Each structure stands twice: as C-alpha cells, then as structure tokens.
UniProtKB/TrEMBL annotation, chains A, B:
<dbReference type="Pfam" id="PF00171">
    <property type="entry name" value="Aldedh"/>
</dbReference>
<protein>
    <recommendedName>
        <fullName>Gamma-glutamyl phosphate reductase</fullName>
        <ecNumber>1.2.1.41</ecNumber>
    </recommendedName>
</protein>
<dbReference type="InterPro" id="IPR015590">
    <property type="entry name" value="Aldehyde_DH_dom"/>
</dbReference>
<dbReference type="GO" id="GO:0055129">
    <property type="term" value="P:L-proline biosynthetic process"/>
</dbReference>
<keyword id="KW-0521">NADP</keyword>
<keyword id="KW-0028">Amino-acid biosynthesis</keyword>
<keyword id="KW-0963">Cytoplasm</keyword>
<feature type="domain" description="Aldehyde dehydrogenase">
    <location>
        <begin position="4"/>
        <end position="295"/>
    </location>
</feature>
<keyword id="KW-0641">Proline biosynthesis</keyword>
<dbReference type="InterPro" id="IPR012134">
    <property type="entry name" value="Glu-5-SA_DH"/>
</dbReference>
<keyword id="KW-0560">Oxidoreductase</keyword>
<dbReference type="GO" id="GO:0050661">
    <property type="term" value="F:NADP binding"/>
</dbReference>
<dbReference type="InterPro" id="IPR016161">
    <property type="entry name" value="Ald_DH/histidinol_DH"/>
</dbReference>
<comment type="pathway">
    <text>Amino-acid biosynthesis; L-proline biosynthesis; L-glutamate 5-semialdehyde from L-glutamate: step 2/2.</text>
</comment>
<dbReference type="InterPro" id="IPR000965">
    <property type="entry name" value="GPR_dom"/>
</dbReference>
<dbReference type="GO" id="GO:0005737">
    <property type="term" value="C:cytoplasm"/>
</dbReference>
<dbReference type="InterPro" id="IPR016162">
    <property type="entry name" value="Ald_DH_N"/>
</dbReference>
Amino acid sequence: MSVQHQALAARTAAQTLATATRAQKDAALHAMADALSKAETAVLEANALDVARAEQAGMSAAIVDRLRLTADRVAGMVDGLRDVAALPDPVGDVVRGWTNANGVEVRQVRVPFGVVGMIYEARPNVTADAAGLCLKSGNAVLLRGSSSAADSNAAVVEALRDGLADAGLPADAVQLVPGPREVTDELMAARGLVDVLIPRGGAGLIDHVVRHSVVPVIETGVGNCHLYVDASADPATALAILLNAKTQRPSVCNAVETLLVHADAAPRFLPDALAALADAGVTVHGDEATSSYGPGVVPAVQEDWDTEYLSLDLAARVVNSLDEAIGHVRDHSTGHSETIVTDSASAAQRFTAEVDAAAVLVNASSRFVDGGEFGFGAEIGISTQKLHARGPMGLPEMTSTKYVVTGSGQVR
Amino acid sequence: MSVQHQALAARTAAQTLATATRAQKDAALHAMADALSKAETAVLEANALDVARAEQAGMSAAIVDRLRLTADRVAGMVDGLRDVAALPDPVGDVVRGWTNANGVEVRQVRVPFGVVGMIYEARPNVTADAAGLCLKSGNAVLLRGSSSAADSNAAVVEALRDGLADAGLPADAVQLVPGPREVTDELMAARGLVDVLIPRGGAGLIDHVVRHSVVPVIETGVGNCHLYVDASADPATALAILLNAKTQRPSVCNAVETLLVHADAAPRFLPDALAALADAGVTVHGDEATSSYGPGVVPAVQEDWDTEYLSLDLAARVVNSLDEAIGHVRDHSTGHSETIVTDSASAAQRFTAEVDAAAVLVNASSRFVDGGEFGFGAEIGISTQKLHARGPMGLPEMTSTKYVVTGSGQVR
C-alpha cells in the first residue's frame, strides 16, 4: 500500500478520533496495552530476528542494545500506554474565550492535528509510546520506524491495532509505514494528507527531514548544551551540577556537552572538577587555559565546540567574562538547554534574558529539562524549534486549536 | 547587500530588541510614526512612481488601487503604529509556571522569535503594519514587498528606520529586502538566520513559499469559506448572514465563497436569497437544484467548488443532509472559516465538532473572523495552518516561549 493510501486511511480514522470521547480513547489505550501484553512472545520473537540481523550486519553494541527488547521493556511499553490513559485529555480544553460587544461568543478550543507522521530510529519502544500519545491527543499516526527494527515494529503495531479494533476504534489510527528509503520522501511530500511530521533521532535524520519536508515539521532533540560556571559560582554547587548533567545519562539530548568557566572561578573550580571528571571516566577536550588546571586534558579542536558527543566526553573552555560566555553559547548552541551556575542575580538575569534556547537554567541540572521531570506525564520529544512548541512536548503540544464562534444572527 | 548579510544584521538587531523594555519599544513606535508622518510628501512622491509604472504596465485597476497611497492612507499607517504602541507587550508574559517537588521553579515565558521574514504583495501599508507588529513583539523584520511597490516601500522603510534611530533602537530591526525574484529564494533558504517566514498574498504566492521554504512558515489567508443553511435555519437570519458574509467586503479571505443549502430549507430560502443576491450584484454559480429556485443562476462547474473568488461571485449547491454538507466542506475547505446557520443544537454541535478549520461559526457572519473583531487590536494575518497559530494572529502569536528553570543546586 502506498504512503498516500495509508495517509488517506489515517485521515478517515482521524475523523473518528477527533470526536471520540476521553472514555473511548482511554478504553482503547487499555485495550492496546492488553493486546501488547498478550503479544509479548510474538514481539520478543520478532525482535530476536531484528537483533540477529543487526549483529550479523556488525552494528555497534550501543545500537543493538537500543534495538533489543526484553520482557521488562515490553512491560514498560504496556505500562506506558496505561499511564497515558491516566493523563488528562487535552482535546476540548478551552484555551481562552470571551464574548464580543455584539454578543458573539468566541471560544478557542484544543483539537487534534489530524494525522501525525513520526520518523524515528532504532528503539522499538518509541512505536508504542508515540502511538499512545497520538491516540490520546486524538491524532492518527503513521509510524516510520527504522528498517533495523522492522520486525519488532510490525509485531508491536499488529498488537496495538488489535487493541484498537477490540475497543471499537479504527485500527488505521495506528499504522506502520514500511518499505525502502523513498517511502520517507513520500511521507515528507504528503502535504495536505499528513498534518505534521515529528522526526526523532540523530542530528542527521532531523536535519534531513527539516530540509526536505513539505509537511510542517516539529524539530526535536539535538542538544549541544552548555554549562557556564560564573565568577561568583559556588564551586561545590557547580561541580555537583556538572557531574550530574554530564554523567547521569550521557546519551541523552539534555546532557551537557560544553563547560565554560569564568577565569576568576577557574583556579578554585577547575582543579577539583578535572579530577572528578577523570574519576567519572569523562574525557575533557579543553582549551589551553583549561589544560593548565589539571592533567589529562585533550586539546580541543574547533569542531569540539559544535559536537553533541552523547558520550563521556566534554568540551571545556575558560572565558574572561559573562559576555564571552553568552557569545560562545550564541555561536554554538543548538537552542536546547543552557545552564548558568552563579550567585549573582544580575548575571543570572542577563544569562536567562540573552541566551536564546528552549530552556535556560540557573543553578540546576539541565537533566531536569524533560517532560517527565516537568510533570507532563509523558513526552513525545523535546522541541528545539521556535514555532508551535519549544522544549518538552506533552499531550497539549500534540494539538492545534479551533475558534468556535457562536452568535444569534449577528453581522458586520 | 545580500540577503545573508541583511539577515545577520537583523539577528544582531534582534538581540537588542529581545531585551528592550516595553517603554523603549513604544517610544520607538511613536518615533517611527512621527518620522513617517514627516515623510508623507516623500512617500506620496515615491508611490506616484510605482503607480505610474503599474499603469504603464497595464496592471488592473484593482491592483493599482491597492498600490495607491493617499494622505489618508499614510495617516492610517501612522495611526496604526501608534495603536500598536498602545497594545500590551506579549514579551515576558509568563504563560504558565510551577514549582517541582524538589524546589526547582519552572516558568514558561514569552520571547520574540528573533528575525521574521514577511513576503507580501502590492499593498504598501503592509510594510508599516508588519514593521510595527514585529517591533512591538521584539522581532527584527525583513520585508520582502512586491517589486511593483518598490519605491513606496523604500520611502516608508527609510522613514521607519529614521524613527528607530531617533529612539535609540537599531535601524536594522526593520529592513527592506530589494532585488530580483531570486532574492525571495534566498530568503526561503536562510534557515538558522531567519526564524519564521510569513507570506501574505494570493494563493499562488503562499503555496510557493510553503512548498519551497526551508525556513519555518506560517501559512496565512487563503479562504474558500462555506456557509451552510441547515434544514432548521431561520430564512431571514440565514439571508442576513449570507449577504453580509458575501457582499460586505468580497475581496477578503473571510468572505463566503460557497453556499450550501439543505434541500428542506431550499424552497423557503433560495427564491428570496437568489433575488437578494442578484440585487446585490452577486453572480451565483449553482448546481441544477439551485437554478430551479430562481433565474440567472450560472451553471456551476467542478472548479467553482474550489475557487476563492474574492469577488461578487458565489458557488451554490443544494445538499440532502448535514452529512453531505460536512462532506462537501471537508472536500473543498481551505480550513479558514466555515459557517452553519441552524436552529438545531445537535446540528450545530456536529458541524463545529466535525468541520476542521481555523474558525467554525454558528449563526454569525464569517466576517467576524478577524484580529480586530476578536479584539486583538492588530493582526499580522490569519493563519490557516495547524502548527503554532491558527486563525487571526495578534501580538502573542508573533512570539515563541522559553522555559526559565531556577534552582539552588538541584540535580537528578
């Protein structure tokens, strides 16, 4: 079936979802969870095929690990669907409303987008997570997963569609989009059929989609995040935040990639920091000034300032002023999460006002920039663009709005 | 100067605007108004050159009229700038905020986009309107007007830049982007330099920008708007709304283009309606059933259902059910403003729930779908897309948001 046919079927399903009640959608989410739970063996068998293929192809251990499902990971997907059922339904929320002088009532109401396209990489759990969030927000979803996870995704989607049908909602609300690379191009060209595309994955994937899609895109996730230790920073606070933001989970987009240290703070901060980073297994790629504060610093090259390592590597530079720090962030930030550690109210004020990013943090770990930590209950991704949604995206960010205007015959 | 150089200068200006206070911006808007007022003679002389060129080129009277400035129209632009100064500043508004269990404070705050690109057609007043709205919302603006208005736009922008400089804000916050057609392509390719493009004009222009821009776009304005007269509609109410929505200002995007009439309502509605439309100078392009209710109906062809006439023309069709009406709207709507006239609560409920558009209206004229009528004080355009903003766009819709996260050393 072509992408166009799939998208048309999704649009029809979306019309049903748009007027489905919360009770219907929650029942469907539980039915999807039940069906996925029952299909555990089939899903694990399908996943074993994907894993074997990846190992034969010589893929890295990290990729194979992301691909691998276990009984625990399937249970996590099942629980995720039930968690989404427990979240409030954004559809129908009145964002604002008023009555005009002539008695015409205006209400801005949340409505689903319609059809969402997800383009994503190895992890098969994204398949269930995205399907759950899209269904709850009243959207049909076209899931374009990685070919490396083709068997796992097919097994998961089959279960989810069974659940939808059990609950009396259209199975075509959740569809896997299989096929060769050209299929992704067709999805990106399906303007008018697909309402929004959300790419999730590495910088290369996201950049490709953003540059080639005619369908509107929500850009997610690339985080070249900076931590700036200001002249007035408490060294112990700065070190705790640095270690947490760099090492607690280095593979995620809100991990810190570059450390900037004010020259006045460097003597009392960097010697201990470099030792602690070395203890934690972090390789520091530093400028000359940084390397003067401790052993083992690898000389930084220009590209280090623009690298999202996603590993136990850290670029580091000593700056002479807050202006120099803000200038460095402006030149190299991907607009995700930028942190200042400081005891100066004026420095904090300037940093938060002048740094342009989805999140700016003062004296807190950038690891808090996350839908779960923000209390959203679930997250479809972290937007690094300025249109529509910026930062962690929960269910309300998966909706548009519609003005409902009600009168009794008024004209202009 | 290349588009890239202009965009870089705009980015630098935008950094200043992002932290400018409301008082600074309002003072600049008044200085721009003063400068434009003083430049009235120069602007009218420049406009006379544009008008003469357009007349020589044999452009239509409608286009020449849109192009022509008068002392009154210049005064309207001046007043518009002062009106924008009087509007609340959206920048810095806290959209929502909370404190996490660990004491970390999260605030979602409105911030400017940065650099906005406007691509628009003949009317030179858009130049001043867009500059005012962008400045107030803290955005630098690159104005890509029509070549037919080149002299007028240059004179207006020169005055606005003088005003900015008088007020101590960077003149490069408002720049005209001159040059051949290729310049528009450069603007659409300036991802990372330009934050958002807003095309305003005909369907051809908007479609071209939407399909070719790598910069995120806010789609505005094409309105193939329907008015459905339900079986239970009061004929007098329906006729008043129809005449207003079709004839009060037929050249605008919220004017009605297609009339759908339930077969049960047709005998008591269409004879009077066709007579009244004829009296108002409206040409009705109707299906066979419609033409059976009165003389002078031109047979509708397939493309009438998809035509945004923007003139005293109206497509008309008799339908047998609410479902058929909703189906017709789904097949032909551009998602702008769709109206039902009915006395049935259930029909109104179904129509507003099932029709997917920026605005759905019950018993009121679609001419109310307008930033001014909505009380926004000013309008940059009417978005017909689902991402970011949908419907009339005021100052808040010209902003993005940023999460400001403040802690006292918290880590995960």
